[in-house]
Design brief:
Strand order of the largest sheet: 3-2-1-4
Low-confidence stretches: none
Order of helices and strands: HHEHEHEHHEHHHHHH
Structural class: alpha/beta
Radius of gyration: 19 Å
Bound molecules: nicotinic acid adenine dinucleotide, adenosine-5'-triphosphate, magnesium ion
Length: about 270
């Protein structure tokens, strides 16, 4: 294995081999223990219809169900956050029907995002790019979830995992802005294995991953955006030898996106040197 690869695997807490049943148990226990210690009233999480939020949503629903059964009142609010009419709304509904969250809220981000994009054009004098607007969508979803969390003393659940963390494939303070991360350390296919163990519908765990942030290329696959395949990213993270040229590209992205995995840098930090 390459030296940098070994360091990345350690830093991102990846286990090359997992037992899905154990992982599910440990992650539900973590959600319960942290909620109890924090004194917060529950969780809020955006449900997109994709793999990651379906898995995190199921873990939250089960954690809250167990807390309530054990006499600790807790809430789980699943939030649909479409931008207008979501192209794959049907998948989001399949995910919600499967998760069966204790509460569901719908919060359309289109008007606020469009308003901001318009103000940007007027204020800055040039149009906000489709890419930049995509990051505004991700951040608007964060704002909506924190509004709900703030009113209800809830914690915002993030869906970051090792296969996204390694390339920094998330919007800083957008979907990257959260209070608690139940999927840390998992590769994409390990997440899929947890969903299979949890008997999620195939529509969801076989679905092509997408950030779905672009007006001009809705449903663009993560792999097309990244220029990397999850198969290679997962193999790299699970310690396998992969094409050295691809390994180097993953390592480069890891180093370039360090700032996204840290709190804002100050002169007392040395991770960037
Ligand atoms: N060296 C450095 N030290 C400290 N801060 C640094 C920095 N370099 C940039 N920055 C800051 O970071 C900003 C760039 O980061 P950011 O705003 O995140 O933007 P960026 O990384 O350019 O874009 C986000 C990427 O994540 C993808 N994404 C987003 C959301 C969800 C998903 C998904 O998987 O579903 C994927 C999205 O498609 C896009 O490719 C810069 O504008 C700057 O403010
Ligand atoms: N349309 C949406 N409605 C609600 N939440 C969303 C929406 N789009 C993104 N999110 C939130 O942002 C997170 C990051 O998106 P991301 O695409 O990485 O995950 P996913 O859609 O759950 O899974 P996948 O990566 O397989 O597409 C989601 O897990 C979800 O919590
Ligand atoms: Mg998605």
């Amino acid at each position: 294995m390459r030296d940098v690869q070994a360091r990345i695997i350690e830093e991102l807490n990846v286990s090359p081999v997992i037992d899905p049943a154990e992982q599910v148990r440990a992650r539900i226990d973590f959600l319960k223990a942290y909620l109890r210690t924090s004194g917060a009233a529950g969780f809020v999480l955006g449900i997109s219809g994709g793999q990651d939020s379906t898995l995190a949503g199921m873990l939250c629903r089960k954690a809250v169900e167990e807390l309530v059964e054990e006499g600790d009142p807790a809430r789980f609010i699943a939030v649909r956050l479409p931008y207008g009419v979501q192209r794959d709304e049907a998948d989001a509904q399949v995910a919600l029907a499967y998760i069966r969250p204790q509460e569901t809220v719908v919060f359309n981000i289109k008007e606020s995002v469009d308003e901001l994009a318009e103000e940007y054009g007027e204020g800055v004098g040039t149009a906000l790019s489709d890419f930049g607007k995509g990051n505004v969508k991700a951040r608007m979803r964060m704002i909506a979830q924190y509004a709900i969390a703030g009113e209800g003393r809830l914690l915002v659940v993030g869906t970051d995992h090792a296969a996204e963390a390694v390339t920094g494939f998330f919007t800083k303070y957008g979907d990257g802005g959260a209070d608690i991360l139940p999927l840390t350390g998992l590769t994409k296919r390990q997440g899929r294995a947890l969903l299979e163990f949890l008997e999620a519908p195939e529509d969801i765990h076989l679905k092509v991953p997408t950030a779905d942030l672009l007006d001009h290329d809705p449903g663009q696959s993560d792999e097309a955006n990244l220029g990397l395949k999850y198969h290679d990213i997962d193999a790299f993270l699970e310690g396998h030898d992969i094409d050295p040229e691809i390994a180097e590209r993953i390592e480069q992205r890891f180093l370039q996106t360090r700032h996204k995995r840290a709190v804002p840098v100050s002169m007392f930090d040395d991770w960037w040197i």
